[in-house]
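Got a spare moment? Tell me how you read both lines of this record:
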Amino acid sequence: MIKFTLLSLILFLSNISFAEPLKINLTDSDQIRLTKKLSKIDSEYRREEIDQTVPYPLVHKYYNFLDVRYAFSIGCYEQFANNSTVGQKAQCSIIFNSELSTSDSISVHDGFMSEFIIAEIKDNSLASILYKTIGNGVSPKVFFNTQEQVTLTHPSTGQKINGFRLRIDCERNPAYTAFSCVASAVK
């Protein structure tokens, strides 16, 4: 009887579905634009590797705003061949994970409809990094949005709503002491 109960408990726990991280897919042109923005991120969030297995210089550069240990992360990659100053093969990964939400750092939740997800970056230092990365540091409000647009239908009113696949809005106060960012995406 104990073996049966233990086996039943294991089967029950294995069938519980945990919220999976949600990855937002972008078009190639949107990934190139986002990679260009993220290439300006603070040096502690960048790394590069030199590929010496090829006969010509090939450098892989990675730009990461956080990683999968956080409720929201953006990671972009590009490579530079033959000492070029123009990157190739830009790829970005945008991940929302509501399971890792915290009330004081990054909160991820569904928006006003189930197809919409929102990440609120409440930690001042993290929001400051993203603000400086997507903006020029002069404007009190900065944003990045994809060129790809989607149309959503409001579940109760039926109204058509245009939205971007990904939009990041950041703002700061006039004294440059308080920063906040909101990232929203269509699932």
Summary: The longest strand covers residues 72-81. The first helix runs from residue 2 to 15.
